[in-house]
Write a structure and sequence with these properties.
Radius of gyration: 23 Å
CATH architecture of the largest domain: 3-Layer(aba) Sandwich
CATH class of the largest domain: Alpha Beta
Bound molecules: N-carbamoyl-L-aspartate
Shape: globular
Oligomer: single chain
Number of domains: 3
CATH superfamily of the largest domain: Aspartate/ornithine carbamoyltransferase
Strand content: 15-25%
Amino acid sequence: MGDPGIRDRTRGLVSAFDTANVWPSGSAPSPSSPPVTRHLISIDDLSLAEIRGLFALADQFSDDPSGFSDTCRGMISASLFYEPSTRTRLSFESAMLRLGGGVLTAAEMNASSAAKGESLADTVRVVGGGYADVIVLRHPSEGAARLAQEYSPVPVINAGDGAHEHPTQTLCDLYNLHVERGKLEGLDVVLAGDLKYSRTVHSFAYALARFGANIVCVPQPGFEMPDYVLKKLRDELNVEPVRADAARLGQLADRSDAIYLTPQKPHQLSLFTDTKGWQVESVDAVYMTRPQTERYQQDDGSIENYQTLGKQSMAAESLRDAVVMHPLPRRDEISSEIDEDPRSIYFKQDARGVPIRMALLSVLMGRMPLEGMVTEAAVPEPNSWPVGTGDNPCPNPSCVSRTEPRHVVPRFSLPSRAPMRAQCAYCSRELAFRFVGCSTTRRYHRPDSNALRQVRPDHLVFLDDEAQADSMQYIPAHH
Ligand code: NCD
């Protein structure tokens, strides 16, 4: 079924893969409809065909890096960075300069009008309203780029929103696998280190699952993949999690409860798994991440004995042919003693960030064609809705709906109707509720009630418990 689960998540965007899967379903662009401003907020905003198209463009740019210096002539990109960055910002700016465009940099946004209390929404309106033709945004709040997209007249590229997503790092990572391995489908990719707070890992895992790769999670103990990411992988991307026997990964997995996330169906898996779990035999890539100490909550505890990749761990049988990747910057989790190992590709990986970002910029600014890309659109139906009550039910204190409350109306989307599940439309965090009310009938239901299928999404009200329902004058549906 191609690209499962994408159409229900994109919002205010048009995904451009085969029209049967385009949301809203089947609606083809009409000749008179206005051009669409495409943004890249989540890696899900790109179809697999579009990602492959970007690889092809990146190949052209890396074969002839100085041969495209007129492609974006006269255009300007603005880097708005509210968090530190070296690689992401400089590689975007290098990409824009190589395309013949200009760059505006606000690398220390906390020293700009933000320090005077300007909201992100206003900053984006100003910068996109005449200064720049594309905005590259990094921000500590999860969902910040989604908010920026709502206010920006020009394309917004998410260069990292808190611990949420980092889609252009994922494009770079996928492009590397494509170059090094020639394919993505069926690859076995180990994700190691801080899987909880690494935004690069979250976006990468979603994309790997869509491309049909298998993921072996070998987290630093205590820094496992968050539930909301696992839920999305399982429920929306049809990935089956099974316990993994990672004994052959040696040192890397010796303290970790490994899990194997695979798009294979349970009946196929049962042929291979025994009671010890999936045998991790031979790995195609190890993706190591640093501890994201800047995002730790106080109760996370400190990280001791962080996993490391060095000569000894790379001697494991299953890693014989594995490439070693890292989004960088590294700390001590990859020892410099393996820098010269031909399997270590992290510096090459980083350099490939420039051609893939050239591809993205030139396409979003309409200067290079991308096969299959939708450039005009019918008006999309909304697939997220404002929250019915005045309360913001997003449980995530780092969500932009909490950090920028002046400009955000909390919204949710519905990955599942029965049982009812709702997610924050900004940070993707699952909303917690015990009952769901209908604002017109004033009745409330359990989340697994079939009656909820009849309720219009904009009439849904999420309720913590009976007492809250009672205080809001809702009555139980079965009375
Ligand atoms: C990553 C990031 O910012 O999330 N860095 C990058 O963009 N290359 C990874 C990290 O900081 O650990």
